[in-house]
Amino acid sequence: MPDLLPALTAKSTRANGQTYIVDAQGVRLPSVTTILNATKPAADREALARWRQRVGSEQAKQISGTASRRGTQTHSHIRRYLLGDDRPCPPAALPYWNSLHPVLTQIDAVRLVEGFVFHYDLGYAGKVDCVASYQGTPCVCDWKTSDRPKQSIERLGDAPLQLAAYCGAINQVYDELDLDHALLAVAVADQPAEIFWLDADRLAAYWQQWQLRVKQFYRRRHGLARS
What we know:
The protein has 227 residues and is α+β, with helices and mostly antiparallel strands. The chain has helices at residues 32-38, 42-55, 57-82, 94-104, 159-173, 200-226; strands spanning 10-15, 18-23, 28-30, 107-119, 124-134, 137-146, 182-188, 191-198.
């Protein structure tokens, strides 16, 4: 069994269409994805609206639902694998599991699997896929599934900011860690997974961007509260 860090007791809750995470003391903080969605640049919102219009609302809902289910099943199987459970992979997730498995064989020293983390100073929380070592370097890991290769980090949307946010929260919660690298692995059916490696300099740049998005989120929220 891996040498896991103590897991934080927390739960997710929804309010006004947004996700919050509540810790054992009842402190409720917005999730990383809630902050990213609320502060998404206008160009990204417009691109999503155009896609929904092009495929139709029902088709868009079906595509999103299918992607969400396969992502959930793939994540669940990765979690079981990392924790030493060797039960078979569900058929719907198998193409993505096969894509990611070669990457997972290079993962060791697993410390956290799907664990909640909080950054009380900045005011956010999240659920991290994995903290482990990849090819010998400690890092925060994130697993994603996709219909087609992303090909460049610029096409990952806010995923690098998400990793920077998780890294900052992990380092605050667990004093013994000092992570400054991140791995984003994108599973594509019938193809090897894409690897995006964020070194210390790149992750620090995304961390700066993330802090700006958090400030933007709270400015907007306080502005709405006053109006």
